[in-house]
Backbone:
């Protein structure tokens, strides 16, 4: 019998909660609590029909074909209303499994989805450790959230090939700037491999709620049937079609992210905050007491993430411009005795 789990998992982006606790208005805050690009894709003018009409299957197929090309995949993906929605459905892809091995610490919603189905969750440190378990499912985020840990593609591929009896799920939500790590080209070719990609993080459009899941036909069918008709909205499809067709805009976002990454790294270094992990979209930092530093920064209207599983660390997203980078640097300098 599936478990009822009521306490929500804390995530980044809870700005309204921070305002309720520390005051101020949204415009006064610098929100660096998520791993979402601070640069949003310029939106096209949308046809009225995408708002008024239910999405046509032909349009869903067209966008999925574009996603296949954009991500360098071997199969057409399933479009989902955000990869979080897909995570909720992962247990149905291996209904006979009773245990899942999750390379941890990582995004907490994987475990939550399987716990709801009364499956045993086995947190492991590496894929090799996952191989030593009895789990019928293994989950890896690559690059990992929140610590940025990377598992090389050859290692992932070797694990998938050697573990045919397991379903291997790889969440590549933060892999847009690291295609060299991606397993998306093998998804569909390897029958036990599922790869998830997030649209909103790289394109700075998380509110759109759009993602793609790459898998062989049988697994894709299970996911599609669980999602039901019209899972993805017409406006989301129209914006994704626009994004995937504009290489110039994609390259512009990449360039902006590279510059913001350099500025943010410099701010952290100048504030003497040790960086212990990172991706193109965030930094993972050692600060001694993560919750205390988070609250200190919040008192200055600067929002970051702290973690129960790693209480000495915080995650900091990208400062979008020089002014924000200076603000981050100078606010962090207030806590220098904690990190020096």
Residues:
């Amino acid at each position: 019998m599936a478990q009822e789990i009521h306490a929500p998992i804390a995530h980044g982006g809870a700005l309204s909660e921070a305002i309720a606790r520390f005051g101020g208005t949204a415009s006064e805050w610098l929100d660096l609590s998520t791993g979402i690009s601070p640069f949003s894709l310029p939106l096209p003018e949308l046809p009225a029909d995408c708002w008024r009409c239910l999405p046509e299957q032909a349009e869903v197929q067209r966008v999925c074909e574009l996603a296949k090309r954009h991500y360098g995949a071997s199969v057409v993906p399933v479009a989902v209303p955000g990869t979080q929605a897909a995570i909720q459905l992962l247990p149905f892809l291996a209904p006979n499994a009773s245990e899942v091995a999750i390379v941890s610490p990582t995004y907490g919603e994987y475990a939550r989805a399987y716990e709801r189905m009364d499956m045993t969750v086995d947190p492991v440190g590496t894929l090799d450790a996952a191989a030593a378990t009895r789990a019928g499912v293994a989950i890896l985020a690559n690059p990992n959230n929140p610590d940025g840990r990377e598992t090389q593609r050859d290692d992932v591929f070797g694990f998938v090939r050697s573990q045919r009896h397991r379903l291997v799920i790889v969440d590549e939500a933060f892999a847009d700037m690291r295609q060299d790590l991606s397993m998306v080209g093998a998804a569909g070719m390897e029958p036990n491999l599922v790869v998830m990609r997030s649209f909103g993080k790289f394109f700075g459009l998380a509110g759109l709620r759009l993602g793609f899941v790459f898998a062989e036909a049988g697994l894709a069918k299970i996911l599609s049937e669980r999602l039901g008709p019209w899972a993805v909205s017409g406006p989301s499809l129209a914006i994704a079609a626009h994004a995937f067709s504009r290489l110039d805009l994609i390259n512009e976002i990449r360039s902006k992210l590279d510059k913001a990454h350099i500025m943010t790294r410099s701010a952290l270094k100048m504030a003497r905050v040790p960086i212990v992990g990172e991706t193109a979209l965030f930094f993972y930092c050692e600060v001694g007491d993560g919750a205390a530093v988070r609250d200190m920064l919040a008192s200055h209207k600067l929002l970051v993430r702290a973690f129960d599983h790693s209480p000495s660390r915080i995650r900091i997203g990208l400062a979008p411009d020089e002014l924000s980078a200076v603000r981050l640097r100078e606010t962090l300098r207030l806590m220098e005795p904690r990190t020096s």
About this structure: The radius of gyration is 20 Å. The chain has two domains: 15-40+248-339, 54-246. Residues 15-40+248-339 form a domain with the Aspartate Aminotransferase, domain 1 fold (CATH 3.90.1150.10).
